[in-house]
Amino acid sequence: MLEEIRMLINNSKYYPLFFLIFFVELVCAQNSAKGRIVDAKTNKEVSGVDVFINENNKPVLTTTSGNFMVQSDSIIYKLKFLRKNYALETVDVTPENAPNIFVQLSQEKESNIQEVVIHNEKPKYKNKKENPAYAIMQEVWKRKRNNGLDKFDTYTYKEYEKIQFDANNLDSAFMKKKIFNKLEFIFEYKDSTAAGKIGLPIFLNEAIYENYGENRPSKKTKRLLIAQKTSGFQDNQIITLTAKNLYRDINIYDNTLNYFDIGFPSPVGETGFSTYDYNLLDTISVRGEQAYKIRYQPKRTEVLAFQGYLYIDTDTYAVLGATLKSTQKINVNFINSISTELEYDNPDEKTFLPRKFVTEIEMTPFSKKKTSKSIIAKRSVDYSEYDFNKPLEDKVFKRQEEEYDDKFVDKDDAFWTKARPDSLSKTEQGVYDMLDKLQQTPKFNRIVKLYETLGSGYYNVVKGIDLGPIFSIYGKNEVEGDRIRLGARTYFTRNDPWRVQFYTAYGFKDHQVKYGAEGRFMFNRVNRFTVGAGTRRDILQLGVQLTNDDGIMARTFASSTIFARGENASLSSVNQTNIFTSIEPWKNFQIRVDGTMQSITSANPEGFNLMYYKDGQLRKTANDSHVTVSLIARPGAKFSQTGIDRYEHGTLAPTIVLKYTRGIQGLFGSDFNYNKLQFMFYKPILIGSWGKTLINFEAGKNFDTVPLALQNVIPGNQSYSLAANTFAQLNYYEFVADTYTTLHLEHHFNGKILSYIPLIKKLKLREVAFIRGAYGTLSDASKAINVEGFKYSAPSEHIYYEYGVGIENIGFGNLRIFRVDFNWRGNYLDRPDISKFGIKAGFQVGF
């Protein structure tokens, strides 16, 4: 379990979630609306007003003061206000005015007031073909448009992005908390609402990109960041990454829209009518074009879906705009609501061009109540200055050294004033002013430092030196007993071109000191040409990872399992030295060469025998020197920062690895010549509204005979914790193979099935299903070389498989990060000391 937590902490894609949990209990939605009601003539507040939502004929609220707040399970697009002696007042609700609606009621003589009957105008159709909205959507599907950028030989355009975080739903009691002692000045920048709540801007990031593309004769793209301005957090890579990592690019015409790497059915997708009800409301003018206004709502509010409006051109059936708003029952961790507004230009009958996208995400780490304190994260992107079929030189697409310089994106205020499509509001400008003051406040810097420590796992002690990882301090295993590990690293800036790391550990049972150290230096930020060297002496759990990393400080499956199924005696003592060099000749494609010298012995000779025969002699230490060439492709992956360590944005990018290892006998006392080839492919895939499938395929072959310490081991997991890409019901070293293939398929349904079950659906649990398989062979020579080779075999008679189901999203409120898996072993059931059924549990931090 401790190792699992370390994995989560060290994985940068989870930093946004650590940011949420640390910051505050977070806010509200257009499923809610609030405001103030006054007399139009006297401007005095009016109470006793009946408030109706949409077309309902029963009031949802009768006010007791001049302020009101209403909520609904469905989208609120209209409010009606009625009070005796006043005329009926109707207000259209939009995402812009929902938080602060100002209603003026006009007095009217009682004799002139007519009976008010509010009808539910939602029509009922026998089938979808009778629905006029269906006929319109059919035309949209027939004329499905593609992004217009694909039709031109070349294109360029400008992109302005603005991301702002606001702490929301604050009140006077919150402002008086001790944490704000000496920080009271920040509330000078607050924004009060009609309901008496307070919003406080806390982060603002602006970025300008120039985009270049070539479709013919070859496919090339480049997105060049030319300016970036961040309020107070230029040196805080984790908070900036948190902001960038929340958003994905979407195409409204796709059947599935990606939010947080979770699939939501698109209301414009061809499968939309299986999820949504559509209602044609009106014909209106949108930027001078006549458009159908269609309201859509999910048939079932428990599913991951949107509600909102579509604006369809009456002549061309192009999407001019759309609003997407999550339902109040959205089942996404840490998220209370999502709202997106899209605007498109349509240059011809077959294509569209993005014009403006605005996405607002409301985040709370614990409670989903609308009154909870929250963070509103708003991102707006303006696309402009499109230019097509203009000749572009090849050098435009090449990465340039100056692009990676820290000062490359620094621009003065005059540049930003000219570059922004709209000037900053007073509130937005106040973010910069406030954060500049906060940077000079020691208490604020301590808060930021605490967040950095939780997010990175390292604690800064002096400039350039961090202690950690703090989550690896304690461990336990059968050989070492209680284990203490202390480490440190150099860290001067987020873009350091070099890094030195080391650790030392001590076991209170074996009374042995362990250590590890590594240094890396990057010569070129463009192709990331890097060299490094390191050494370690430690107790490790080998045989739980097929395609591993030779790096000394790379994460390994540590020997610190506190709770395990059966005894684990199969630990190894490893003395290893490694040197490496790597380069990225093309974006997201890395070539790495490792030279490794190591000696491996059993850390527990009485319980785990690694002895083998060599030239007729019995040996207990496997001496090995090898060279490994790795080709690593990450097409589509996105990274922040340009230093030796980068932080990865959350994407659905695949990972493809091809490795060749050559063992060299006689080099530094190595005992073996051997050749090994390995391949690994990992990819998450969104399957529409049915969730997400994770695919992990690995294959490899040892072409020569090697002892157990150097052999391929099908990864087992004897702990009670979840461990990715291992076999839950296999013991360590149960299957050993010269040649192997493994496949892991895991599908997350996102509550699709459980949402149909009464009572259960209220728990907001999500179901997982998985199946794992392995096949391999082990030669007689590979068995004979080991003293206890008779114990080992490969899954060659049949494909070994196991399967199971899991329940994830276990927790309360917005904090649902616990998962339980139920695993069944499919075959090889006659083996001794095996487990046919097992339960694994652990934390799974994610949306």
Percent of sequence in beta strands: 35-45%
Number of helices: 9
Low-confidence stretches: 1-12, 14-30, 109-120
Task: Provide the residue-averaged pLDDT.
Answer: 82
- How would the global form be characterised? globular
Which structural class do you get from the secondary structure elements? mainly beta
Give the helix level as a range of percent.
under 10%
- Largest sheet at a glance? 18 strands, antiparallel
Beta strand count:
45
Enter the CATH topology name of the largest domain: Porin
Name the features.
847 residues; mainly beta; Immunoglobulin-like; Porin; 3 domains; 18-stranded antiparallel sheet; 12-stranded mixed sheet; 9 helices; 45 strands; globular; disordered N terminus
Task: Describe the secondary structure blueprint for this structure.
Elements: H1 2-10, H2 15-23, E1 32-39, E2 50-53, E3 61-62, E4 67-71, E5 78-82, E6 89-92, E7 101-105, H3 132-142, E8 146-147, E9 154-170, H4 172-175, E10 191-192, E11 198-214, E12 220-230, H5 237-245, E13 256-259, E14 262-265, E15 276-286, E16 289-298, E17 306-313, E18 319-326, E19 335-345, E20 351-363, E21 374-388, H6 413-419, H7 426-438, H8 442-456, E22 459-462, E23 464-467, E24 474-477, E25 481-491, E26 498-507, E27 513-524, E28 529-540, E29 572-586, E30 589-602, E31 612-614, E32 617-619, E33 622-633, E34 639-640, E35 647-648, E36 655-663, E37 674-686, E38 692-702, E39 712-713, E40 736-737, E41 739-748, E42 766-777, H9 780-784, E43 800-812, E44 815-825, E45 837-843
Parallel strand pairs: 1-7, 8-20
Antiparallel strand pairs: 1-4, 2-3, 2-5, 5-6, 9-11, 9-21, 10-11, 11-12, 13-14, 15-16, 16-17, 17-18, 18-19, 19-20, 20-21, 22-23, 23-25, 24-25, 25-26, 26-27, 27-28, 28-29, 29-30, 30-33, 31-32, 33-36, 34-35, 36-37, 37-38, 38-41, 39-40, 41-42, 42-43, 43-44, 44-45
Pfam family, one: DUF5686
Protein name: CarboxypepD_reg-like domain-containing protein
InterPro entries: CarboxyPept-like_regulatory, DUF5686
